[in-house]
Design goal:
- By secondary structure, this protein is of the alpha+beta class.
- The protein is built from 18 helices and 29 strands.
- It has an eight-stranded mixed sheet with strand order 3-5-1-12-9-10-11-20, with helices on both faces.
- Helix 8 links the parallel strand 14 and strand 15.
- Helix 5 packs across helix 6, helix 8 packs parallel to helix 9 and helix 13 runs parallel beside helix 14.
- The longest helix is centred in the last third of the chain and has 27 residues.
- The chain binds pteridine-2,4(1H,3H)-dione (LUZ) and dioxothiomolybdenum(VI) ion (MOS).
């Protein structure tokens, strides 16, 4: 798989924040955190900790020179607790010491006296106590109430899905260096260098231009460093500012798992009504989102849940309501899909249960209700150039899903203790930040006198290949080889006000800005070439393969000669450009508009086999027909689809986050929290839809990061089907993840102990 960084990774030469050499005077900071989920702080005694040799200082909220506030959407989150703590793991003070170990040891010497308060960990209980992050929101279309009487089948139920740990390879890390005159330089493993800069300035009480944040690359993020890389960088920055030493902070795996938020668990109630042909006439759903203690990105995630509550279907009478509930857990946060996977899970659960009641395969309901062009989404946007049916045909044509389904039935007849099943899933995912102002990006392109090119954008490389895509865009626009182009680190001094690299838009937004900046320089170069070649035929001039062509004919002038000429004749070889995604709008009062630039579509079929003695199972394979537009880098997109699918399957099957009754994380390392490894990964076959042409995307491509995560949802329903093949009286419990323990119980459950989820 060709990616710009691959050789460095293979050789172990790629530099991450933790690889940077530290100077001798570097100090280490670590937060003293609450070990009570909800309490008043009566007193803290730091004397023993301060007496520990090597401990330099302990900082509390009183030492903060600006605002003690790191909230972004809502200003509801303090950096350091003042009098009350709201979750286990909330920071109270910062220990600054000569080593990371000493800082941690000193934490154990701090004596805190708490007055414990009632703590809530469940979203529905928080809802009953009116503990809301924001008021509920509702998207609706048609009229559900007048439709129920017309339905031949009505199914109601509950569905829940659990949290998920991001499990990025690189844990949260930051280093802050004090510079002259109150300036700071921060190296932070963040998806949002711009936000890290803004929040540091706020907490220190200084101007943003004094803070430079630089990011070379991340060892994965998946949303877990969109908002939650910030606090660690702020802690390092505050300690660096106050001690005038470089300061580093890196979390261990267990600390990272305990102190950071996860994918939001959801608990939902649904009601779905269909006619006898399997057409969905009405759907009503109420989502309870477990937000944790502070808002973080929860309101935005809740909004994306509503945008995806009808998934790939047209449902004429629709009502989706969602409420974000405040609990005493670490604030849950962005995670690949950003609330959409939860919405899709609940709708697929409703379809599954309805199909069961009707005695048909859910695949029939899925296919009968696919969106068609000119339909409207419940949020008013018109469906355009949808490729759901094309993906469905491609899936059948390449992978013979019908035949495989028959093979499954045949297998099940022949095996009494092993059961197989296949289920399908269509996906539809909207591309754009739902916060309109975030849909902008800048690029800065320099061409040096030797013809080499250097590009800065706001895109953060986290293994997703965005650097490679941007390099491709620049190479194609300038007509030169990729080897001439270097993608620089992501730096707030070169790019101002950058949006996070998130919402699957990193390549789209930053690639478009890069293209615009390259085009500005190209225009100057073409004018210069016209003068040099003494032609007025500017429109016929182009640069291809580093040669200047006139009407496609080689004029004997090379890229390097032209650049030398440009420098000597004082032609500008740098350009900056800004891109703002056009045609976006959304009215939050009416909950309608055109929030997305376009949608990504696809269809998948997932097959699994259960061992009915043990409850263990194997996800055998997943076949996918995916619309990636005109891919900028097929192998990168393939890698994104494969990784996303495995992550989605993990969420639905083996990954189980468990807190004890006091809100302490029990699944706190990678031996008691299982993520899929290479043995658990199924065979994955992906076909990209041919001739897809997304004129609204970057060079006709489509964003790829998040949408394929949702294919993994099929794993849950495949397992339900296989259980039913063994135990026909089993009533599906719509509660994910479907761990082997739950599968075993389900295999031997009796009809009369049904459905208390
Ligand atoms: N982050 C964000 C996201 O701030 N806004 C979004 O709409 C979004 N969508 C997906 C993933 N991250
Ligand atoms: Mo995200 S969930 O950081 O796109």
């Amino acid at each position: 798989m060709k990616q710009l960084d691959n050789e460095l990774h293979a050789r172990g030469q790629a530099q991450f924040t933790d690889d940077l050499a530290l100077t001798d005077n570097t100090l280490h900071v670590f937060p003293l955190v609450s070990n009570i989920a909800h309490a008043l702080i009566k007193s803290i005694d730091f004397r023993k900790a301060l007496a520990l040799p090597g401990v330099k200082t302990i900082l509390t909220a009183k030492d903060i020179t600006g605002q003690n506030q790191i909230g972004n959407i809502e200003a509801d989150e303090v950096l350091l607790a003042e009098s009350e703590v709201f979750y286990q793991g909330q920071a109270i003070a910062l220990i600054v010491a000569e080593s990371a170990e000493l800082a941690r040891s000193a934490c154990n010497l701090c004596e805190i006296e708490y007055q414990e308060l009632e703590a809530i960990f469940d979203a529905r209980i928080a809802d009953q106590h009116n503990q809301h992050i924001a008021s509920p929101r509702c998207f609706s279309m048609g009229s559900i109430e007048s439709t129920w009487p017309r339905c031949d089948y009505i199914t109601e139920g509950h569905a829940e899905c659990g949290a998920q740990e991001h499990a990025y390879l690189e844990t949260q890390t930051a280093i802050a260096y004090p510079l002259e005159n109150g300036q700071l330089k921060i190296i932070s493993a963040t998806q949002s260098p711009g936000m890290v800069q803004r929040i540091i300035a706020k907490v220190l009480g200084c101007a943003m231009h004094l803070i430079e944040v630089d990011v070379l690359r991340l060892g994965g993020a998946f949303g877990g460093k969109e908002e939650q890389a910030t606090q660690w960088a702020v802690m390092a920055a505050l300690a660096a500012r106050l001690t005038q030493h470089p300061v580093k902070l890196q979390l261990s795996r267990e600390e990272d798992m305990c102190l950071t938020g996860k994918r939001h668990p959801y608990s939902a109630d649904f009601k779905i009504g269909l006619n006898s042909k399997g057409k969905i006439l009405a759907y009503q759903v109420y989502f309870h989102q477990n937000a944790g203690a502070f808002a973080d990105l929860s309101p935005a995630i809740l909004e994306r849940t509503l945008f995806h509550a009808s998934n790939a279907y047209f449902i004429a009478n629709f009502q989706a309501t969602a409420v974000s509930c405040r609990t005493n857990l670490p604030p849950n946060t962005a995670f690949r899909g950003f609330g959409a996977p939860q919405a899709v899970f609940v709708l697929e659960a409703a379809i599954f249960k309805a199909a069961q009641q009707m005695g048909i395969d859910p695949a029939i309901i899925q296919y009968n209700n696919l969106l068609q062009d000119e339909d409207h989404f419940p949020y008013g946007m018109k469906v355009k150039n949808n490729t759901l049916k094309a993906c469905h045909s491609l899936l059948e044509q390449k992978f013979f899903i019908n035949q495989r389904q028959q093979d499954c039935e045949h297998f099940n007849k022949q095996h009494s203790l092993q059961k197989k099943a296949i289920s399908l899933i269509p996906i539809t995912f909207g591309i754009a930040f739902t916060a309109l102002f975030l849909n902008q990006a800048d690029a800065l392109v320099h061409i040096y006198a030797d013809g080499s090119v250097s590009i800065s954008t706001g895109a953060v490389e986290m293994g997703q290949g965005v650097k490679t895509k941007i390099q491709t865009v620049a190479a194609q626009t300038l007509g030169i080889g990729v080897n001439r182009i270097k993608i620089d680190s992501t730096n707030t001094s070169r790019i101002a006000n950058m949006s996070p690299t998130a919402a699957s838009t990193g390549a789209d937004l930053n690639g478009q800005a890069t293209k615009l900046a390259c085009e500005k320089i190209l225009k100057r170069l073409i004018q210069l070439a016209a003068a040099t070649l003494n032609t007025s035929n500017i429109n016929q001039l182009s640069i291809k393969s580093e040669r200047i062509l006139l009407a496609e004919k080689d004029m004997g002038l090379t890229w390097c000669q032209l650049i030398t000429q440009a420098y000597l004749t004082r032609c500008g070889l740098s350009a900056q450009a800004h891109y703002a995604t056009p045609h976006l709008s959304f009215d939050r009062n009416k909950e309608t508009g055109n929030p997305f630039a376009y949608h990504v579509y696809g269809y998948a079929a997932l097959e699994a086999t259960i061992d009915c003695l043990r409850g263990t199972y194997q996800i055998d394979n997943i076949k996918i027909a995916h619309d990636a537009g005109k891919s900028l880098a097929t192998n990168i997109d393939l890698g994104q689809v494969e990784g996303a699918v495995v992550q989605g399957i993990g969420w639905m099957t083996m990954e189980e986050i468990i807190y004890d009754p006091h809100g302490r994380l029990l699944s706190n390392n990678l031996t008691n929290y299982k993520i899929p490894d290479i043995y658990a990964a199924p065979e994955i076959q992906v076909k990209f839809l041919a001739n897809s042409n997304n004129t609204t995307g970057l060079m006709n491509s489509k964003a790829v990061g998040e949408p394929p995560f949702i294919y993994g949802v099929a794993a849950f329903f495949t397992l339900q089907k296989a259980i039913q093949a063994f135990n026909p009286t089993y009533q599906a419990k719509l509660s994910a993840p479907m761990t082997p323990e739950k599968v075993l119980l389900a295999l031997y459950s009796k009809n009369n102990e049904i459905n208390n989820t």
